[in-house]
Amino acid sequence: MAWKRSDDLPGNHPAEPAPAAPRPAPPVPSASSPSAPEPPRRSGDRATIGPSIFIKGDLTGDEDLVIEGRVEGRVDLKQNNVTVGRNGKVKADVFGRVVTIEGEVDGNVFAQEQAILRQAGAIRGNISAPRVVLEDGSRFKGTIDMEPKERHGTGHQAPAAQTAQASAPSRIGAADAGSAGESPVGASRPAQAG
């Protein structure tokens, strides 16, 4: 508070600026606000379905996905990478650019570029991809289709020799292979004497 002497005239002193009114704070957008924009995603971002999550239904999106939980339905990320982690259990058809399986998939796998079945992974279903990697010890039961898509206008398809079939699942360990009539991927079965 300033005291004013009675002999001071307003014209003798320079005017003091009036105090500025406090500015109101800008509103903070809430997560439930429909107009709140989402931060842009970087190209290296990927979503993760954790081990305790169970999803029943179709999954779609525009980012890479790692599945460590359980999914039943359809996984459709044709332009992105899909990884089924070691804890992942998927009962669905899986569509992706590069599909990597370290867990279990009970369904068909469709990869635009490459399908990779890691050593600890298992697929019970068909694989359709131009490039397929089955690591030693992985388990697979189904067919593999590596035919390129039809060329536009020519109707030409690759020869049937590029389609592989696996009639029995492979298992880790040669001891299981002999007793169950199945062989691990990459292992040879001993010849039986007749």
Q: Which strand order do you get reading across the main beta sheet?
A: 6-7-9-12-10-8
Share in β-strands: 35-45%
Shape: elongated
Number of strands: 13
Distance between the termini: 113 Å
Nearest-integer average pLDDT: 74
Helicity range = under 10%
Main sheet summary: 6 strands, parallel, barrel
Q: Structural class, judged by helices and strands?
A: mainly beta
Low-confidence stretches: 31-36, 151-163, 167-184, 186-194
Model description:
By secondary structure, this protein is mainly beta. The protein is 4% helix and 37% strand. The protein contains 1 helix and 13 strands, in the order βββββββββββββα. The chain has one helix at residues 174-180, and strands at residues 46-49, 54-60, 64-67, 70-77, 82-84, 89-101, 104-106, 109-117, 122-124, 127-128, 131-134, 139-145, 163-166. A 6-stranded parallel barrel has the order 6-7-9-12-10-8. It is elongated, with a radius of gyration of 31 Å. The model is unreliable at 31-36, 151-163, 167-184 and 186-194 (pLDDT under 50).
Question: What brief labels describe this structure?
Answer:
single chain; 194 residues; mainly beta; 37% strand
How do the helices and strands line up, and which of them pair or pack?
Elements: E1 46-49, E2 54-60, E3 64-67, E4 70-77, E5 82-84, E6 89-101, E7 104-106, E8 109-117, E9 122-124, E10 127-128, E11 131-134, E12 139-145, E13 163-166, H1 174-180
Parallel strand pairs: 1-3, 2-4, 3-5, 4-6, 5-6, 6-7, 6-8, 7-9, 8-10, 8-11, 9-12, 10-12
Antiparallel strand pairs: 12-13
